[in-house]
Design a protein that fits this description.
CATH class of the largest domain: Alpha Beta
CATH superfamily of the largest domain: Type I PLP-dependent aspartate aminotransferase-like (Major domain)
Distance between the termini: 32 Å
CATH architecture of the largest domain: 3-Layer(aba) Sandwich
Helix content: 25-40%
Number of helices: 11
Strand order of the largest sheet: 2-8-7-6-5-3-4
Order of helices and strands: EHHEHEHEHEHEEEHHEEHEEHEH
CATH topology of the largest domain: Aspartate Aminotransferase, domain 2
Strand content: 15-25%
């Protein structure tokens, strides 16, 4: 199988990730923070080690500001419900994943927030001027994707952040498609207030892991409340980070894998991963452009996008095309709307959506060439059948 669905979850995982999870399960699988015996202490060390590695990778100066979550959806809901109050105005975009769209729509329909969406061009790039025009004195939060999961578009985050800071609002970035392959520095030139991301994509960890970075000085109401293994006499959730946001036993097995995944990413280098992805994307874009009947959606070049490349095929439904690639050619891609229907609406690919091939660190030029050859063959066969 040639795996080209890395935007959904990266595969395969580095061997070190499997080893770390197995070692934890066999040797250290006590309940972190809940007991004083050496297994529980070792488990606590694994969880805190994961937190420290995540903080190091995103440039967070204080690891305690990293709340460990179940996934990006959990992190985003934690941010929305923790920061927003009745009467707040929120600005988002049309390029968002349903993990942003649905909770914000629910809050808006309940009458708790006012919600606006910034425009984008036909490559999926969000217009900072459109964002600026939507800002109000009551704008509390701007929540946007760093890179589109549907079309691979990398957004002009520096320009967006400057608009947000000038207007005095908070910036929440969904970095699901960015962390691990795009340099992230939450305390950089334009600091980021909130950053949400999963562990199972660019960080090469297992499913069921993720994180929300919360900048110092910004306090969120707890989203998940319960036991923390700390002062059990408190009748409410502790105030101090990170336990404020981390009620319940964590996925310590998964966090052991996430810790190893982060180490792998940093050892290989985010810049090197990005360059590998860019070169493969350029090869795939060139190959797709050479095939009659293929339409590429999103940025035309490899520099302004991730390795997630969406396309449609003449006279072939995206789901039928993806099914044929799987069954006949052993190539795994994704078809449809990719949990981002508004993004497809804005780029004109509703209702069927697109075929999305998403490249990862373990993909090769041979993988790309096999996909190009398979698509050319499929379209040639379709053309022959239409002519008969």
């Amino acid at each position: 199988m040639i795996y080209l669905d890395n935007a959904a979850t990266t595969f395969p995982k580095p061997e070190a990730v499997h080893q770390a999870m197995e070692h934890f399960a066999r040797n250290d699988a006590g309940n972190p923070g809940r007991s004083g015996h050496h297994w529980a202490t070792a488990a606590s060390g694994e969880v805190e080690g994961a937190r420290q590695e995540v903080a190091r990778l995103i440039g967070a100066p204080d690891p305690s500001r990293v709340a460990l979550c179940l996934n990006a959806t959990d992190a985003l809901s934690m941010a929305f419900h923790g920061i927003l109050r009745p009467g707040d105005h929120v600005v988002t975009s049309r390029m968002e994943h349903n993990s942003v769209v649905r909770p914000l729509n629910a809050l808006a329909r309940a009458g708790l927030i006012d919600l606006d969406r910034a425009d984008n061009d036909m490559t999926g790039c969000i217009d900072p001027d459109s964002l600026r025009r939507l800002m109000r004195p009551s704008t509390r939060l701007v929540a946007m994707t760093w890179a589109s999961n549907a079309f691979g578009t990398i957004q002009p985050i520096d320009q967006i952040a400057e608009v947000v800071k000038t207007q005095g609002a908070l910036l929440l970035l969904d970095a699901s498609q960015a962390v691990g392959s795009i340099d992230v520095d939450v305390a950089g030139r334009v600091p980021i207030d909130l950053l949400a991301f999963p562990g199972h994509k660019g960080l090469m960890g297992p499913m069921g892991t993720g994180a929300l970075y919360i900048r110092a000085g910004l306090d969120l109401a707890p989203w998940r409340e319960g036991g923390t293994g700390g002062d059990s006499t408190l009748p409410v959730q502790p105030l101090a980070m990170p336990h404020r946001m981390e009620g319940g036993t964590p996925n310590a097995h998964g966090l052991a894998g996430l810790r190893a995944g982060c180490r792998w990413v940093m050892e290989r280098g985010v810049g090197a991963i990005r360059e590998h992805e860019r070169l493969l994307a350029a090869r795939l874009l060139a190959g797709l452009s050479s095939i009659d009947g293929v339409s590429i959606h999103g940025p035309a070049g490899a520099n302004g996008r991730t390795g997630a490349i969406s396309f449609t095929l003449k006279d072939l439904d995206p789901h039928d095309a993806a099914g044929a690639l799987d069954a006949t050619f052993g190539i795994a891609v994704r078809a449809g709307l990719h949990c981002a229907p508004e993004a497809h609406a804005s780029l004109g690919t509703l209702p069927a959506g697109t075929v999305r091939a998403s490249l990862g660190p373990f993909n090769t030029t041979n993988d790309v060439d096999h996909l190009i050859d398979a698509l050319a063959g499929m379209l040639a066969s379709t053309a022959k059948m239409s002519a008969c």
